[in-house]
Amino acid sequence: MKQNKKRVDYSRWGYYFILPFFITYFIFSLIPLLDTIRFSFFEYFRSGIRQIGPNFVGLKNYQALLESDMLRYASNTMILWLLGFIPQIVVAMLLAVWFTDKRLKIKGLQFFKVVMYLPNLIMASAFAMMFFALFSTNGPVNSILLNLGWINQKIDFLGTPFGTRAMIAFMNFLMWFGNTAIILMAAILGINEEIFESAEMDGCTPLQKFFHITLPLIRPILAYTLITAIIGGLQMFDVPQILTNGQGSPNRTSMTLIMFLNSHLKSKNYGMAGALSVYLFIVSGILCYFVYKMLEEKDPTGTMREKAKQSRKKGVLTNAK
């Protein structure tokens, strides 16, 4: 007689392994998020040693923010992000295409990857302090320029809106371009080489290959890069906070939304801070949606995919001959 062997069901073990993550997310992320939304509808702040609230005020906090300088700080945040992100994505894309081009036969690729990624490992606070020391009025940059005779008087780099914004953008560029370049390099290396070979046989130029093959095929990674960059840009805080001592100087032209949020938290105004957090969440969601729709696949019928397959087959047959 055959003995019936008991079969062990392992399907539930997957749920056991992901359970700690969901418990951690529920306690430390979801509950605070819901609590922030709840506080945004309440008047809840501290006046001296006296605590006001929480008193339900509806949408009063949201209206008060619109009447404040929030839109000005949102404009500052967008300007700082664009000044840093546009050169970041351009340089990262150029480096990614360059390092993945097998015709150049670049040696020491891993070394260059490490060098590009190193600024990302430096704490933003340390990076900001270093630049503050370098470009201060009595810093080494001014001393070198004076000794070379290139300037007649010291330059106050942090004394003008353009100088402060340019320095913040430059620091963000240095910290993140290497990370973006490595992600794009991985995306380009994931493209089948046969597609490029077939395109070369059809007489495609390097620019045509880049715009008609590389960019469309790495669109999902570009969408990921843009979305994470938008979220990171809206959360810009540490570099301008340290560089301007939390004042957003000069004349609050480098004050970001998170610095504005932090000022409400420092004054214990949790109602306004919660409303501003909700605004940031909504804006992030809207921007990410537009980026996703802008970069989503524009080939619903599959015509382009079929052409790519035919081109690939043609290249294989040609090589076989």
What report would you give on this structure?
This protein is mainly alpha-helical and 321 residues long. It has helices spanning 13-39, 60-67, 70-100, 109-121, 124-134, 140-148, 161-189, 193-201, 206-217, 219-234, 238-243, 257-266, 270-295, 303-320; strands at 42-47, 50-56. It is built from 14 helices and two strands; from the N terminus they run αββααααααααααααα. It has a two-stranded antiparallel sheet with strand order 1-2. Helix 5 packs across helix 7. The longest helix has 31 residues, at 70-100. It is globular, with a radius of gyration of 26 Å. Mean pLDDT is 85; it is low at 300-304 and 315-321. The chain crosses the membrane at residues 12-34, 78-99, 111-135, 166-191, 217-237, 270-292. Its main location: membrane.
Key descriptive features of the protein:
321 residues; mainly alpha; MetI-like fold; two-stranded antiparallel ribbon; 70% helix; 4% strand; disordered C terminus; transmembrane helix; MetI-like; ABC_transporter_permease; Multiple sugar transport system permease protein; sugar transport
